[in-house]
Amino acid sequence: MAEYPLIELYIDGQWKRASGQPIINPADESVLGTVPTATKADLDDALAAAEKGFAIWRSTAPAKRAQIILKAAALIRERVDVMAAAMTLEQGKPIEQAKLEILRGCDIIEWDATEGLRLYGRVIPSEPGMRHTVLRQPIGPVAAFSPWNFPMSSPARKVAGALSAGCSIILKASEETPAGAFQLVRAFHDVGLPAGVLNLVFGNPAEISEYLIPQSRIRLVTFTGSIPVGKHLAEMAGRYMKPAIMELGGHAPVIVCDDVDPVATGAASAIGKSRNAGQVCVAPTRFFVQESIYEQFAQSFAERASQLKVGNGLDPSTQLGPLANSRRIDAMETLVADAKAKGARVLAGGQRIGNRGYFFPLTVLADLPDDARAMNEEPFGPLALVNPVKTLDEAIEKANALPFGLAAYAFTKSASNAERLAESVEVGNLSINHFVASVAETPFGGVKDSGYGREGGTEGLQCYTVVKNVSHKTL
Ligand code: NAD
């Protein structure tokens, strides 16, 4: 039977129980446990621990650091089944997707750990008697804020980046889905990470961010979540001159050219959209399909969407779990009602399933006007919007029309179309002929309102460092 862990704070290498808010199972609305609330004194302890942890960790040999981090990843791989079950209980995603998320988190941790060995500086050629050396050093204690949609892989990105670069970190993970981060941190504790290097807190997100970000001991802020909250935190970070990594929302366009198989691409789109019930910042959402294949594509998409088995994520045959909270149900209902009122066709889904548990089917809407709310607001749920376009130029113009710029997708067999898309679509991540937006070794992040800074790849790790030039005149 799936078990849910007792969630505790983790400060200076010690676990701490505290009272707090209930954690709700989105499949049946039962209470799974309590997420502890950190007090101001806990946050002060975490800051002191992070300062002490940084002093220890930055002076630990990079090879030793990598060894500890890799051990934690290996332990997480061993525990994947137990960890995945807890994540399905708290977040709703199908158990196979929870396992994949954890394994992907391990890929990220392992890649960053070894890349941490290669944070090279350089020596700049200069006049005789003068040596300019550029050093890349860990930036210092990090304040990290991770969301509820990827309870393990999002915190893993932040913890892996910070620790692999030699930084300490205070992680405030999601209060709604705390087990992913809790189990991640427990693995680092169990393999002997020095006390203070990694600290985990929960509580009131606004109170914690307002307390931590201004602190002089915090040297970097990293946040994954909504654009309004991201802008607020970025403003605060700016006021205190803290660099920030902002991984915010998206509204990913998918451009389908008329040289691809519309039936296969439509079916693949339904699977791509169904991942984590569409609660993904890179979820494919606005489909712009060339006219000659439009109807065939839309029908195939709707047919495959209607076949998905919706249910409790613990059932291995479930393909679409519940949404993570009731706010997402409200958002889907509002966006679908608005689109229908403005003339959109409902090709699949459209209505909440039952009234216990937050189930909503994969919904395919077609022929939406540009002013439909769903075409402008990130649905962050199982909503796909399918519209015809005449030309590639028109598709690119529509793709770029919103202030978002995180991920985009395109399907084409033409190298010249692909080249044109790569040049002109305004995003941080463009995937052509598939729906994977990022892997451990590639930089991931947005442009425009979708944020700045990168997670993953060499660029991601560099965000956790500062560059120092040492100019040495030899006497
Ligand atoms: P929300 O805007 O209330 O919260 C978004 C996230 O930010 C949550 O994890 C929350 O705990 C945190 N948060 C809120 N206020 C904060 C503060 N002052 N300081 C620090 N953290 C704070 O929205 P929500 O209902 O939880 O999520 C819905 C929206 O959030 C979606 O529409 C989507 O745009 C966005 N979201 C994006 C991602 C992503 O991966 N980029 C992940 C989750 C949510």
Explain what this protein looks like in three dimensions.
With 475 residues, the chain is α/β, with parallel strands linked by helices. It is built from 14 helices and 20 strands. The chain has helices at 40-58, 62-78, 80-91, 95-115, 153-165, 179-190, 205-212, 227-239, 262-274, 291-307, 326-341, 392-399, 415-424, 457-462; strands at 9-11, 14-16, 20-24, 31-36, 122-124, 130-138, 142-145, 169-172, 198-201, 220-224, 244-247, 252-256, 284-290, 345-348, 363-366, 383-389, 407-411, 429-432, 451-452, 465-473. The strands form five sheets. Strands 14-15-16-13-12-17-18 form a seven-stranded mixed β-sheet, with helices on both faces. It has a six-stranded mixed β-sheet with strand order 9-8-7-10-11-19, sandwiched between helices. α6 (179-190) links the parallel β8 and β9 (198-201). α3 (80-91) crosses α4, α4 (95-115) packs parallel to α5 (153-165) and α9 packs across α10 (291-307). The longest helix has 21 residues, at 95-115. The relative contact order is 0.14. The model has no long low-confidence stretch (mean pLDDT 98). Bound molecules: nicotinamide-adenine-dinucleotide. The site of nicotinamide-adenine-dinucleotide (NAD) has 22 residues, from α7 and α8.
Indicate the overall shape: globular
Span from first to last CA? 71 Å
Q: Which ions and ligands are bound to the chains?
A: nicotinamide-adenine-dinucleotide
Q: Cα-atom Rg, whole angstroms?
A: 23 Å
Percent range of helical residues? 25-40%
Query: What would you call the structural class?
Result: alpha/beta
The number of distinct β-strands equals 20
Could you name the ranges where pLDDT drops below 50 across 5 or more consecutive residues? none
Strand content: 15-25%
Mean pLDDT level: 98
Number of helices: 14
Strands across the major sheet, in which order?
Answer: 14-15-16-13-12-17-18
**Biggest β-sheet description:** 7 strands, mixed
